[in-house]
Amino acid sequence: MIYFDNATFCKPLPETIEFAQKQISEFYGDSFQIYSEGQKTKAVLEFYRSELALLINSSSSSIFFTSGQTESNNIIANSLQIGDYNSIITSIYEHESVLKSLKFVGSKLNIPLLFVENEIDTGVSLIDLDKILYKNPHSFVSFSHVNRLTGRLLPVKRVVKTIRKYSSVFHCDMSDSLGKLPIDFKNLDIDVITGNSTNVGAISGSGFICAKNDFHLQSVFFLGRNNELGIRPGIENVPAISSMIFALKKSIEKIDENWEYLIKLKSNLKTELESNQVKYSSVSFSEKNFLPHFANLEMINIKNFDIFLIKLDLKNVSVFDSRNELTNMFNNIRISLSPQNTKEEIKLFCQILGSFVD
Q: What CATH number matches the domain at 14-252, 3.40.50.300, 1.10.760.10, 3.40.50.1260, 3.40.640.10?
């Protein structure tokens, strides 16, 4: 099996799975209850909240655990209130949970949803962002730290500087950069960020929101017991939460080593594609401003793209179908790598492509 879809779900390391299994067997009590097992679960939950705060330079009171990226982004969108913002600003490359939730909330509150120019090679246009904010100050702005299709990095400090000039609020989805780049919440001066367990090689079912004290989170409409300071119902998934923090710590410990390894691996990918005469186009091979974990390939001369994807699957190759009409990607696959991938996998993958790509 050649697994190149680590941006959707990074394959967990064996030690992470072992750790999660231990957490499942030890922490199962209801943290709302006074009995010992419940209080033990509550204590470990708060321990991991403080651990995450240390890892991203935040305070424990700013962190709220969720079930993942989609719930986190929906909670943030739902927190927008009538009269708070003149407009909602984002880009067409954002995660579906951002685009759909912001569209829904904007329509409900009668707040215009505006899109900043975001080119596949150059990323978010700061000039266009400045123009939009000049006409629409006091806005809510949402961009991902990493373009989820191409791996293009957002110049966060420059974006924050522009947003602050127009008294606006910034949400940054950092799911794809978590564990791959250092995240310093306080020094970046972002109002609210989101992160996800599956992008760091943990078991699924956990994510988080980290928000400044003056960004007031509101629960999405669910009826049930109020957990996480009232923003979501249901018992916290402690094994998934602890697994996320465990895997994140492992990633941060090797952040520089992993970065260098993946730069080399991505370079091998380009070399092997060319040596196997695979016809493709890509902007993702620039080492500057792109995450080395990502490569988006536009496959040239593919007659039937669905058949092409099926052929890859029959060869036990997993890649992400990144066709997207909004972004004018019609014959594209996204390859997302992790430190678990190898040069041998890259070589075999490119040989497979070369064997049936016209």
A: 3.40.640.10
Ramachandran area for residue 54 (φ above 0: left; ψ -120 to 50: alpha; else beta): alpha
What mean pLDDT do residues 166-177 have? 97
What pLDDT, on a 0 to 100 scale, did the predictor assign at position 31? 77
Whether 117 and 142 have beta carbons less than 8 Å apart is answered as: no
Give the residue extent of every domain in the chain: 14-252, 254-356
Rounded Cα–Cα distance for residues 46 and 44 (Å):
5
Cα four-point dihedral sign 256, 261, 265, 270: positive
H/E run at residue 55: helix 36-56
d(CA 11, CA 275) in angstroms, rounded, equals 28
Distance of CA 63 to the CA centre of its chain: 17
**Which residues lie across from 333 on neighbouring strands?**
297, 321
Cβ atoms of 63 and 103 closer than 8 Å: no
Least confident range from 7-11, 226-230, 328-332: namely 226-230
Longest dimension (CA), the chain: 66
Residues paired with residue 280 on neighbouring β-strands, in sequence order = 299
User: Is there a contact between 46 and 73 (Cβ–Cβ < 8 Å)?
Assistant: no
CATH code of domain 254-356: 3.90.1150.10
Give the DSSP H or E segment for 103. helix 96-109
Phi, psi angles (nearest 5°) of residue 322: -105, 25
- Residue 125 clears pLDDT 60, i.e. is over it: yes
Q: Global pTM? A: 0.92
In the chain, % helix, strand, coil (3-state, to 5) comes to 40, 20, 40
Structure tokens at 220: 């999405």
142 CB-near residues (< 8 Å, 6+ apart)? 76, 88, 89, 90, 94, 98, 102, 170, 171, 172, 173
Are residues 288 and 299 in contact, defined by beta-carbon separation less than 8 angstroms?
no
